[in-house]
Amino acid sequence: MLTWLIYDIAENKIRTKVAACCKNAGLYRVQKSVFLGDIEKNRIDELHLQCDNLIDKKKDSVYVFPMCKDDFKNVKTSGNAFDKSLVSDEILSMFF
Questions:
Q1: pLDDT digits (tens, 9 = 90+) for 49-84
Q2: Is 63 part of a structural domain of the chain?
Q3: Are strands 34-38 and 2-8 parallel, antiparallel or unpaired?
Q4: How far apart are CA 11 and CA 20, in angstroms?
Q5: DSSP label at 27?
Q6: Which helix (H) or strand (E) segment is 71 a member of?
Q7: In 3D, which of 31, 46, 37, 39 has the Cα closest to residue 72?
Q8: pTM of this prediction?
Q9: DSSP classification of residue 64
């Protein structure tokens, strides 16, 4: 399932570990704290638990947003947002 993982993490060490978990799960870095990729449902849950165990729940946050292909087609961006065409070409072609 196409999945976004977005985080706001205060400490560099923890942020680096969460980013590594995202990359190990097969997610592609869209922005510094935003990842996107196609992973299976059970892997989504596993990744969420890994991140949950790493962060300081009092000051950090992690969001996981599963998204279907049709919903991704309707994503709108403005300004200096991620390059949707790059993601569509490089990511979606691998997934769909």
A1: 999 999 999 999 999 999 887 887 787 767 766 655
A2: yes
A3: antiparallel
A4: 14
A5: P
A6: helix 69-73
A7: 37
A8: 0.78
A9: E
Distance CA 88, CA 94 (A): 9
Question: Could you give the number of structural domains in the chain?
Answer: 1
Q: How many residues in the chain?
A: 96
Tokens of 9: 């993490």
Nearest to 75 by CA among 66, 84, 64, 86: 84
First to last CA, the chain: 10
Residue 90 is assigned to a structural domain of this protein = no
Location of structure tokens 């592609």: 28
Segments forming the whole domain that contains residue 44: 2-82
Q: Given CA atoms 36, 81, 19, 66 in this order, what sign does their dihedral have?
A: negative
Does the pLDDT at position 43 exceed 90? yes
